[in-house]
Specification:
By secondary structure, this protein is mainly α. It contains 16 helices and 2 strands.
Length: about 300
């Protein structure tokens, strides 16, 4: 299959759903709505919502009612990027090839734009219209999955350890914790909510969970590599930022070539975890390859 064509089609569908979920920039208070949309529609790949959709499709489910839920994943991901870029955290000037949210709207509005996106995600997830389309037990399981992956036992916890590790000679288990929580937790949750939505049986749910964990790790290893080898015009942010901040990464432990080998190895294991799935899971298989071979 042509994964680039698949990603383009799904991104268009997700973007249209997101446009309906988020207030227009002209709605009062305009400053925060404009900032939310500025970051949300800055050209993201929509990997997380697409993983949720692909997981549900792998189980033969129609994904119309999943779209708002998968959109909530992107709202949370974008909030995390806005906050990560703030001077108090990673202090980045560029994101997706554009000035970061706080550079355009100021720190206060950037903080509130991130807050707005995060809370809006749960407004979307708990909308009574969702309950009409998805049984309550599955909807609650999805909300639990996303909230856990986003909080101190997931993304927030990983970000804390990542910041505290700057300039320190951390061990590899600490790096693994950062990767599996800061990046991996929401990617794992994305796959799992697709599986929950599609009523996956225990065996297939376990297989998709394993896939999500491995793809999340492969994604972060690829990010570590791109921070060294990428081009600013392609990755959309400053190259070498991890090195400048004294952050430990996979290449700093293993070197570039071994890191590339490990990224491919992890992606191959992710694909192998889908061995009992038919061709409906091909998008997931191709996404694993795409994640380690991407240039941004």
């Amino acid at each position: 299959m042509d994964i680039k064509s698949y990603l383009s089609r799904k991104k268009d569908i997700v973007d249209k759903a997101l446009d309906k979920l988020v207030p227009p920039a002209t709605m009062f208070p305009t400053s925060v709505h404009e900032a939310m949309r500025y970051s949300l529609f800055a050209g993201g790949k929509r990997v997380r919502p697409i993983l949720a959709i692909a997981a549900a499709e792998a189980l033969g489910a129609k994904t119309t009612d999943l779209l708002p839920l998968s959109g909530a994943l992107e709202l949370i991901h974008t909030y995390s990027l806005i906050h990560d870029d703030l001077p108090a955290m990673d202090d980045d000037d560029l994101r997706r090839g554009r000035p970061t949210c706080h550079k355009v709207y100021g720190e206060a509005i950037a903080v509130l734009a991130g807050d707005g996106l995060l809370t809006m995600a749960f407004e979307v997830l708990s909308d009574p219209r969702r309950a009409k389309a998805i049984p309550a037990n599955r909807l609650i399981a999805i909300i639990k999955e996303i909230s856990t992956a986003s909080g101190v036992f997931g993304m927030v916890g990983g970000q804390v350890v990542d910041m505290e590790a700057e300039g320190k000679d951390i061990d590899f288990p600490t790096l693994e914790y950062i990767h599996t929580h800061k990046t991996g937790a929401l990617i794992r949750a994305s796959v799992r909510i697709g599986a929950i939505y599609a009523k996956a049986g225990k065996r297939r749910f376990t297989a998709l969970t394993h896939y999500g964990e491995l793809v999340g790790l492969a994604f972060q290893i690829a990010d570590d590599i791109l921070d060294i080898t990428g081009k600013q015009e392609e990755i959309g942010k400053d190259v070498g930022s991890d090195l400048k901040k004294g952050k430990k990464t996979f290449p700093s432990f293993y070197g570039l070539e071994e890191s590339r080998r490990r990224a491919v190895e992890v992606a191959d294991k992710a694909i192998l975890s889908l061995k009992d799935f038919d061709r409906k899971a091909d998008p997931l298989r191709e996404l694993a390859k795409y994640i380690v071979n991407r240039v941004n």
